[in-house]
Here is the input.
Amino acid sequence: MHELDGKVALVTGAGMGLGQACALTMAEQGARVMVADLNDEAGQETVNTIEQRGGTASFVRVDVADASAVETMVKHTVDTYGRLDSAVNNAGIVGDGAPVANESESNWDLVMSINLKGVFLCCKYQVRQMLEQGGGAIVNMSSVMGLNGNAGGVSYAASKHGVIGITKCVALENAQTSIRVNAICPGIMKTPLVDGLISRSGGAFADYAITSTPMARIGEPEEVARTAAWLCSDAASYITGTALPVDGGFNAQ
Here is the structure.
């Protein structure tokens, strides 16, 4: 039996990277998956892959910074599959990192609107649905930069710290409602974004990733995805309000 047999899962930012890995893994674990993304083509490709592997999935376009779009996303999930058992709020951006003296307000506002407001809105409407149906599990995607600082990354780090704050508050609000809320804090993972950083740096970023990580390797998206699926499963029934690093030991330093 798979961990998520009979469950309905919603994954934002599921068109690529960690979100795509989460959608694929949750489908493999038996969930019917609503793939949500701003990019129609990428989202549909994830749906096609799930279906080719024998799973069940649908696509919904969403801008997580738009309240009405997020509300519609949750409603569409319920209209399609009857309920919402688990959600992975993964959609996010890095933005244009700069020292605080040079940080633009426009970059700050953009990063906060997607990374922080987006998670707030997703939790708001997901919790409303889960309260109606009697329970559920939410996983918010933070980062090791939600637990640490990073020179030149004030917007991103602040947004990811905020995701952990949202997670703890929503978990406490719902600790007796059968709704569990947790965060994952990935380290440097092998995603298209990181591949681009490696390419643009001539391989220097890969060297940094390996030397700064105690396990001396870049993580695989599936390692985050399996963690998300587990946190959404009944196997994690006594876990809520935590921020779990999946980082090869980076945060232990």
User: Anything to note?
Assistant: Residues 105-133 form the longest helix (29 residues). DSSP finds eight helices and seven strands in the chain.
